[in-house]
Amino acid sequence: MSTEPATEKVTTKIWQETASADNPFVASNCYCYGYNVYDDVLLQANWIEYLYLLFIGEQADRQQTIVLQQLAIALANPGPRDASVRAAMNAGVGGSTTASCLIAAIAVNAGQFGGGREVYSLVECIQAMDMDLSQWLAYARKERIADIDCLWPETNHLAGFNPYQKTCSEIWLKLLTHVASDTNMPFCAWLVTHYAAFENITKCAMAKSFVCAAIFKDLGFNSEQAEALYLLLSLPGAVVHALEQKVSGWRHYPFFANGLDLAQSTLNAVSSEPVEVCL
After folding, report:
1. Cβ proximity of 85 and 241 under 8 Å
2. What's the pTM?
């Protein structure tokens, strides 16, 4: 029987390391797809370029870097109106750890209504239908149903559209229109031309999930990579709002500092008239 210690190897195309001379569990050199991280990438690349390299395995060109950076800025802080940010804020004001705040944000932002899984589904749709207008019009009319993921329940809305809004948000339409001017973003340009027709059919607004999915697809990310990046890039705003509320405390928490203020002095329990409640 051999007395040599067992050697376990991780099979990966992404990463290569050489071990430190005095500790086999510490790396002395790291290579990401062949690029020396601490000698080359650290000195010559920015965060967005490194992120693209990690996911795609190739160096991003200048325009890809610019577009991904613009998307990262747009996603970085969804704002307190966003449910995932509010989830993180709720955790923060309650005194939860930073990790708990991040997990709360991810949990809410992972779903099929404006979340990461909706982005995943939309990238799958784009891959299947590309720029075939007839197929997309059928999709908008719900004549063509996207493949349903057995791990997720069936949704009650059309992926990529917000049933609580009539027209696309100005900020996301501005981003889509801006990146669509790049000749390397063909689906984004196509979507700028046709999104209004889809909104007219669905009577719903094109959602930010559709804009993000279009950008991710044109940048070369597959559905799972797009889902992961959507979640990752949305975290900075969630955590900074959570940390802010943790310091401010629950007495100054937005919308709930004064409890419920019933504007109507006399309430009739059996009345069908709506009661105005200010939060």
Report:
1. yes
2. 0.84
